[in-house]
Amino acid sequence: MPHLKITTNVSKSSVPSNFLKETSALISKMLGKPESYCVVTVVPDQMMLWGGEEGPCAIAHLMSIGKLGVKENKNYSKILGEHIEKHLGVAPNHMYIEYQDIKTADLGYDNTTFHDILG
């Protein structure tokens, strides 16, 4: 159920071929969720500008059922910021990360919702 979406002006050709797989494993470990439920989306080649200057930048959105909060999100910002900078070249101060703790009833999967799956 975790979904990390990264929208960036980094070109598709600059995204390492293993980035999706490595990032999926990272969010699974980071959130303590089964990787079989993890989704990673990268939307490259976007027309974006940060602070009036050109250069690599990104907007990320991490959605999860639980495992998000003030303390956790601070830690996740460090982990994701370092990971994205290492692999995509986007400095942490040129990226926002939005966190969304979604209710089980508000996320559908396999013809039902996670409310039915998780109780």
TrEMBL record:
Keywords: Cytokine, Isomerase, Secreted. One of its GO terms (cellular component) is extracellular space. It catalyses: L-dopachrome = 5,6-dihydroxyindole-2-carboxylate; 3-phenylpyruvate = enol-phenylpyruvate. One of its GO terms (molecular function) is cytokine activity. Pfam families: MIF. InterPro entries: Macrophage_inhib_fac, Tautomerase/MIF_sf. Its EC number is 5.3.2.1, 5.3.3.12. It comes from the Eukaryota. It is found in: Secreted. Belongs to the MIF family. PANTHER family: D-DOPACHROME DECARBOXYLASE (PTHR11954), MACROPHAGE MIGRATION INHIBITORY FACTOR (PTHR11954:SF6). This is L-dopachrome isomerase. It comes from Daphnia magna.
